[in-house]
Each structure stands twice: as C-alpha cells, then as structure tokens.
C-alpha cells in the first residue's frame, strides 16, 4: 500500500489514474518504469500515475469500495409536549440510499456517546460541536452548528471502521420510528465495546515484539503531542489576528484614509492646476476589505484546526491503552521466571499486544492521510484568497499611482 502525497490528474486515453493527496492505493506494479507505477484506488479503479506522488505506509484499515458520504440540510424548528419544548431538527441524507432521515442535536449526541463507548480505545472519535442554550434558534447559530455537524458527520463517514458499523448505519438509514428505537436499544446493550474491539482485529502481518510496539507508541505520542501544540498555537494566533482584522486594523486604515482625504480636500481648495492626482491618492483605503477578509479565508483555516484539536485530544487516551499493554508484556517476563504464568500465556499476551499495535498503526495512517488532504486543501484556499485580497489592494494602489506624474 502507498499513501498519495500530492494530487495527480489523469490525462484521457493514457490509462492513467487520478488520485488525491491523502488517498491510500494498492500498488500493483512498480516495474512500469519512467517514474510510473500501476495502482488500484479504494473504488477498485486501476491505472498509472507518477511514483513521485506516493509514500510508503504500513497497515491500513480495510476501506469500503464505495466511500460513504452524507448531507445535512433543511433545519426546521419543531416542538413537542404541545409546544412546551422546542428544538431544531435536521435532514440527514446518506449517499447510499439518498433517502433523508430526521435527527435533532440530542440524536447526534447519542451517536457520539455510542461511538465513543464502542471505538474510543482504538479510534479517534472527536467530540461534537458544543450545544448552546441561549440564542440556539437564531439563524446564524443554526447555520454554524449545521456546518459543524456536517463536518463531524463527513469525518465519521470517511472512517472505514466507523462508517460500516451497525450503529452508524442505523443513524443514517433507519426506516421508521420503530426501527430507530429498537436499534437504539440494541446499540445500548452492545457488549463488544472498548478494549474488547481489539479481539475483532485480524492483521495480515508478522507478529511484532514488545520493543517494536513500544517504539511505535513513543513515535505516535511525540507526533500527536507536537501537532496538538502547533494546532493550539495557530488557533490562538488566528483568533487574535481575526479580532485585529475586524476591530482596530480597519479603524486604523479608515483613519489613514480619512487623513489623506482631508489633506486632498485642502489641496483642492487651492484651485491650482494638477491637484486631481492628489485627490485620487486620498481615496485609497482598505478598511472594509480587511474587515471582510477573515470570513473568506481565516475562517476555514480555524475551523479545520478546531476539528484537528478535537481529533488530537483523543490520542493520549488511545496511546495510554497501548502503553499499558506494553508494560504488561514486559511484566510477563518476570511472571514467567517466577512461575506465575506459562510461556504460552506470555506468547498470547505478546500476540494481543502486536494486534493492538497494528490497530494503532492503521488508525495513525488513516489520520495522516486525512491530515495531508485536509491541510493541503485548506492552505490552498487560504493562500488563494490571500493572493486575491492583496491583488485587489495592489490594483487600487496601482490605479492611484498612475494618476501621478513624475515631475
């Protein structure tokens, strides 16, 4: 398997395969030559693409042939108990059935709790966007919460283990209230949860020893901690910059523009020839543009980082489970020497620890492939919008400059 690091667009008629950064592909033939490899994507399509676009990965989850997606739309205010209790209900439409189902926030919260209970020991299940009580029926809040619920559901749909689980499929595809309620009861009674989930993992690879498992744990622990620090720093700096762009900075630009305009008005009062250019110079200001800009680019960067803050917050607990397993395997040597357990018991413990390690590697590889795709996409958008913003400012400045002649 290989991880796609860069986008590659196939040319028609050349037996090429289009891939996106973050995709995982199965390498079929590396001997094609000329810097090309033949591979198969998760949809089962095969073709050629540049080997410069890929990097080696280890174990990965088994991805479905048809990726799942869903759309959250049409929020409506509903009520119960003869209007005593009001809530917002959303329409959720999965790509598999194209048949909408209705859910309110507490249903999403129920789904999150079930997923966390079932998969929290081996998968990163980020928390939902916060529930707000005051102002929860205001249009802007409804829109923002729907966007964040959409982002959360999209991320869950993209996870090959979560998306194929019974509880997630129930949430997306129940046919009526009876099926929804019986499915909920069944999910709440599910006993294969938490660390028990490792017993269902069957890695197709050689068994790892305790030292290899421990090394992987430390490697992932360092990376997730460092990325968490970086994400938090960017969020702090980004929010501070947003406040400046929507607060003091536009006011400063407006003050500068006003000072230029006042001076140009004085110049104009002289009625002396050649004053027009100076009036043009007084019209240049960027306050309004600066105030509107964060919504076009910084907003998406901060939203992506907020998502990853939630994802990264899950890893310390996940990694702690694996570190505890490593310590038990280490302790097994002493117990064998003391005659408290057999060598066969120790081998079983090492086998389980190895299986858990492959699960962690698969989850980290899924995380990395999504990270590469998400940050590549959001940074492209951010920089494109920044270029457009400064280009507009530069065009205005060039227009004003053209009014001045060299004396």
UniProtKB/TrEMBL annotation:
InterPro entries, per the entry: AH/BAR_dom_sf, PX_dom, PX_dom_sf, SH3-like_dom_sf, SH3_domain, Sorting_nexin_WASP-bd-dom
Occurrences of domain PX (ranges): 68-178
GO biological process, alphabetically ordered: cleavage furrow formation; endocytosis; endosomal transport; plasma membrane tubulation; protein transport
Location in the cell: Cytoplasmic vesicle membrane
One GO CC annotation: cytoplasmic vesicle membrane
Region (Disordered): 272-291
GO molecular function: phosphatidylinositol binding
UniProtKB keywords: Cytoplasmic vesicle, Membrane, Protein transport, SH3 domain, Transport
Key word Magnesium present: no
Span of domain SH3: 1-59
Pfam families in the record: BAR_3_WASP_bdg, PX, SH3_1
Signal peptide start-end: none
Domain of life: Eukaryota
Family stated for the protein in its record: Belongs to the sorting nexin family.
Protein name, entry field: Sorting nexin 9
Source organism: Amphiprion percula (Orange clownfish)
């Amino acid at each position: 398997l290989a991880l796609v690091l860069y986008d590659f667009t196939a040319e028609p008629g050349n037996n090429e395969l289009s891939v996106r950064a973050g995709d995982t592909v199965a390498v079929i033939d590396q001997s094609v030559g000329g810097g090309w490899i033949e591979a198969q994507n998760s949809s089962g399509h095969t073709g050629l693409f540049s080997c410069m676009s890929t990097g080696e990965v280890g174990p990965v989850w088994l991805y479905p042939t048809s990726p799942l997606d869903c759309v959250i739309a049409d929020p409506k205010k509903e009520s119960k108990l003869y209007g005593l209790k009001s809530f917002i209900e959303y329409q959720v439409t999965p790509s598999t059935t194209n048949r909408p189902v209705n859910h309110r926030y507490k249903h999403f919260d129920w789904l999150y709790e079930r997923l966390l209970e079932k998969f929290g020991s081996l998968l990163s299940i980020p928390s939902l966007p916060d529930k707000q009580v005051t102002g929860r029926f205001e249009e802007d809040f409804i829109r923002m919460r729907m966007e964040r619920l959409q982002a959360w559901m999209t991320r869950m749909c993209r996870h090959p283990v979560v998306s194929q689980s019974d509880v997630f499929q129930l949430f997306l595809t129940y046919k009526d209230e009876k099926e929804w309620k019986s499915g909920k009861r069944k999910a709440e009674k599910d006993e294969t949860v938490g660390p028990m989930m490792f017993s269902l993992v069957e890695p197709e690879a050689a068994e790892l020893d305790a030292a290899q498992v421990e090394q992987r744990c430390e490697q992932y622990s360092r990376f997730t901690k460092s990325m968490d620090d970086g994400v938090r720093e960017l969020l702090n700096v980004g929010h501070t910059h947003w406040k400046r762009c929507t607060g003091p900075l536009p006011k400063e630009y407006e003050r500068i523009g006003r000072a230029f305009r006042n001076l140009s008005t004085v110049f104009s009062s002289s009625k002396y020839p050649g004053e027009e250019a100076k009036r043009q110079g007084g019209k240049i200001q960027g306050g309004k543009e600066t105030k509107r800009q964060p919504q076009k680019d910084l907003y998406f960067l901060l939203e992506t980082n907020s998502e990853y803050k939630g994802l990264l917050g899950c890893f310390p607990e996940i990694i702690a489970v694996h570190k505890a397993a490593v310590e038990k395997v280490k302790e097994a040597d002493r117990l064998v020497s003391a005659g408290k357990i057999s060598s066969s018991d120790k081998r079983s413990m090492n086998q389980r620890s190895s299986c858990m390690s492959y699960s962690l590697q698969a989850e980290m590889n899924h995380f990395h492939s999504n990270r590469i795709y998400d940050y590549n996409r959001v940074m492209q958008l951010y920089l494109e919008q920044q270029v457009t913003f400064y280009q507009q400012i530069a065009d205005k400045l060039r227009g004003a400059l053209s009014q001045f002649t060299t004396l």
